[in-house]
Amino acid sequence: MTNIYEIANKLRAESKHLPINRIELEDALNTLIHRVLFPICDQEKSREKKLYYFYSILVENIAALSDRKTAEAMVDKFISGLPELQDKLYDEAAVYFENDPAAKSIEEVILTYPGFFAQVVYRISHEFYKMNTPIIPRLFSEYAHSKVGIDINPGAEIGRAFYIDHGTGIVIGETTIIGNNVKVYQGVTLGALFVTKGLANEKRHPTIEDNVVIYAGATILGGKTVVGHDSTIGGNAWLTKSVVPYSLVQQNSEIKIHNTLNAGEHIIDFNI
Q1: CB-side exposure of 84: number of CA atoms within 13 Å?
Q2: Residue 265 confidence class, pLDDT cut points 50, 70, 90
Q3: Which distant-in-sequence residues (6+ apart) come within 8 Å of 132 by Cβ?
Q4: Domains detected in the chain
């Protein structure tokens, strides 16, 4: 029988301890979202206590990555902007309600919509990203990714009234810029045309201007690629070059019908 005690001692001796507590940080993030920003039932009475819990966990973990004075300054700045962030998030929940005929209430959006959850976590992580907080922004965004299957890098710049429909499989890269009133459906990738470490400080991901709709499965790549305002990108489209405003980009599908009846196989090709 394996000696569990010896294995545990060996693992402990050879382990490199990570500087932050991921479990604590994820719990703090959930507390902020579900007990402070969107409190359920009569949780408002304990909002101050819950907010202090978030504050203390963030300070302790950021301090482990830098120093306590820097950590306190970062978290203080984030906390001071929470009322404005909360207003913005309620406005964005209303955007989901207005755009989705299946939504019965704003409360339903807040409690159940994966796209909205990913967007909330993005807004939080982006604030820490702008302060150059190490690791924490990416940890938050990857937590949302693991929960709902939507990967929004905290470095992306996303404007007002952003709307994610369904959301599963969406990828939005670090240097993506998205304007106002943009709608994105499931399976969309806003990615890099080339992936090399040497491009780490370059704009690698596309720019999406205002009032653009990107339908399911579309892929838009490249830091120089700009989708002009009021454009529509059709489902499964593959785009690596810029398009002017008011464009319609479509992916034509080729259908082959195989008829094996009677005198052998006949193939009819046509595009739709």
Answers
A1: 7
A2: low
A3: none
A4: 18-149 (1.10.3130.10), 156-272 (2.160.10.10)
Are 51 and 86 within 8 A, CB to CB?
no
Residue 104: half-sphere exposure toward Cβ, Cα within 13 Å: 3
What distance in Å separates the CA atoms of residue 28 and residue 184, rounded to the nearest whole number? 29
DSSP H/E element including 238 = strand 238-239
Nearest partner of 257 among 266, 248, 249, 245, judged by Cα = 266
Q: Give the integer Cα–Cα distance in Å for 174 and 206.
A: 10
Over the stretch 217-251, which tens digit does the pLDDT of each residue have? Answer: 999 999 999 999 999 999 999 999 999 999 999 98
Residues in the chain: 272
User: What are the C-alpha distances in Å from 50 to residues 22, 39, 46, 53?
Assistant: 18, 10, 6, 5
HSE-up of residue 32 (Cα within 13 Å, Cβ side)? 26
Q: For the residues of 22-41, what is the DSSP string, one character each?
A: HHHHHHHHHHIIIIIIS--T
Q: Where are the alpha helices (DSSP H) in the chain?
A: 4-14, 22-31, 47-65, 68-80, 82-99, 106-112, 114-130, 136-148
| Residue showing tokens 């978290």 | 75
Please check whether residue 62 is in contact with residue 72, taking contact to mean a CB–CB distance below 8 angstroms: no
Distances, alpha carbon 56 to alpha carbons 59, 128, 205, 241, in Å: 5, 15, 35, 46
Is residue 35 within 8 A of residue 48, CB to CB? The reply is no
Summarised one tens digit per residue, pLDDT across range 90-122 is 999 999 999 999 999 999 999 999 999 999 999
Long-range CB contacts for residues 233-239, cutoff 8 Å, separation at least 24: 235/185, 239/206
